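Anyone able to model this chain together with adenosine-5'-triphosphate?
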Amino acid sequence: MLEIRGLDVHYGGVHALRGLSLGVAQGEIVALLGNNGAGKTTTLSAVSGLVRPSGGAILFEGADITREHPHRITARGLVHVPEGRRVFSTLTVHENLQLGGYLVRDSAEIRRRIERVYELLPHLAQRRGQQGGTLSGGEQQMLAVGRALVTGPRLLLLDEPSMGLAPLVVASVMELVADINAGGTSVLLVEQNAAAALRIADRGYVIENGECVLEGPAAGLREDPRVVQAYLGGV
Ligand code: ATP
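re: yes, here you go
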């Protein structure tokens, strides 16, 4: 479904991605692991068209999207939820979700999608009139993901959804991602919380200094001594 081939990204003199290759098949959750600065966010930004690669190619469902505009990429069903719970704090939960439908012309379809988000996240439904900024961190994260769902993703690009959340809340966010995937949406999940990500992922890649250094089924990565040592706290 998504194929990244030999991708290079430079920020001025910084060579952030160095010939990175990875893939996501239809129906998969793929975890992208790595330390701070490894190039995870840059990978998602390149896929969604927010940064321009200096080399390599990105293919989505067979089409070359390497230099396509971000809004065209989103319209193909590649929806990026950036790091940091960017909800509109003075808009209500419902208004935030409505914004997710900006590319959808059919208002009945937007209403149906919002209702599906409320079914998936009943506690958001109870807060539909509440301002986004008054929600807890975990609820804001769920709202950001819910808004992306209204856009109608075929592949969801999630950047660090567990960031700054308490362990129990991380578990609910991961459960939400697994539920979304069970509904047919593929997921590319960037996480520093490798344990949480590998619990729900089918496969994973480990990135270091802009290169993929390890890949494989999530179950194998969970047991791999290099992953255990570097990303699972050495236990
Ligand atoms: P984090 O978890 O901290 O976001 P990451 O794995 O997502 O880390 P990136 O944010 O993709 O890593 O950064 C990869 C490299 O590119 C780092 O060396 C970073 O300092 C550099 N970088 C990222 N964004 C920019 C930018 N806008 N300008 C210059 N350098 C950047």
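The chain has ten helices and ten strands.
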